[in-house]
Amino acid sequence: MGVTSGNIGQRPPELRKRRTRYDIYKRIDASYYGYRDEEGGVLARVEGPAEAKMRAEAEEEWRRVEEIRREARRGAKEVVSVGAAARELLFEEEEDVVEEERKERKDKEREFVVHVPLPDEKEIERMIVERKKMELLSKYASEGLLEEQSEAMDLLNIHR
pTM of whole model > 0.85? Predict the structure, then answer.
C-alpha cells in the first residue's frame, strides 16, 4: 500500500460542530446584558460629567418653566382684580384710550389690560349648556332628524 505524496502532512478538514441552543444560552450571563458594566468604574468616569451637564440643563429648564408659570398666575390674579376696570377700558372712546395708554406705560408692571372682550359667567354657562345639548343630540338623534330641525329653524328664522 503506497502513500501518495499529495496527502502527506495534510489533515482531513475538520467538521465544525454546530452549537446547540443550550451552548448558546449557557454563555449568557449578567455581563451579556450589561449589568456588570459599572464594576470597572469606566462608565462612572465617562458618564459622570455628561450626567451632571444634562441634570443642570434640566434644572435650568424647570426653573424657567416655573418662572413662566408664576408670571402667568400673577397675571391671572391681576386680571381678576382688574375685572370691571378692564371691561370699561375696552369700550371707552378713542381719546380716553390714548390717555389710558399713557397711564399703562407708567403702571405697566402693576396692571394687566385685556385687549379682547371676555365672556362673563352667564355667557360661559350658556355656551357650555349649548355644547352639551349638541353632544347629546348628536349622540341620541339621527342625522336626518338634526337636518330637519335645522331646516325648521331656518324657515322660522331662529338663530342660536
Answer: no
